[in-house]
Amino acid sequence: MIAKFKEYFTKKVKLKIIVFSIISGCLLLLSILMMVPGVGLESKSFIDSIETQIKKIMPKGTYIIKGDSATYNTMMENVVRGAYQTDATSTLNSNEMSPEDYDAALKAYSEFANTWYLNRWENAIKEQKDLDLYDLGMDLVKFDKAVSTEFLSYGYVHAGIAWFFHPGGIKDIFSKERYNDALRNQTMIDQEVYDEALNYVVPGTNVPNINKSLGTLLLNNKTWFLNYQIENIKYGFNVMGVNVFEDSNLSVSTMPKSSMDISELYMPNFTSTLQVLRAGIVMFFIYIGLILPLYIYAMVMLIKNRKEKG
Question: Are 100 and 10 within one domain?
């Protein structure tokens, strides 16, 4: 038996070197290709669809609040600051948390939102720079990514391969919590049901305060949030009889987009991409622990026999 095994490495040596190398390389490449995209690829497609909607809702150069406007400070301190707070705190699911945990999470999310707001806009406010709502919208996209990394998972906004090498990444990838979270994030319910479950301050010049939410049903949450921003724009057309925008001719009738539907956003499938990532990682470790040592052994034997024959 041993003799036959050794004899195997003495025949068609060159061909076997090529075949084994191709098989080994393909297995390694396949495992890496399965690991590279991860959940982050689905998130990117979803985020891209949000950016598309923002560009339609508040096109660059359309909704501008002048820095010397009498309503500028009020809009910045309440409406703009509030956009970050509602964006973050509306993702919390009050139904699945105790009142104490929900209050603590609200505080943490609000503080994070306030810090982000100050870092982004404090200097602009001091210098009374004009505000283009398009710039606010684009920054909210960056803010969403930061919230996800800070409070949810690094993997939602990074490639699978980066998640794999991130500290604690493998444990997070294979955790039941992450799968359940991904499943919830991709789940969609009737938008009216979601909207009715939210308890929040109506659009206006007060800082919004969300007291109840179904949280991160992502499609529903972002549909609500974008429509909420549309309502804020409509409110800006008549704040105590004054149009807050530079172009006083702006009105509901001139809006490029006065509402949006959930079907206009990309529908992510986080669980499928997570399962592919998990399979790729398992295959990678099988390759490292089993296939690669066998390949190295085979190469040593084949090359040794080839030299002896040569």
Answer: no
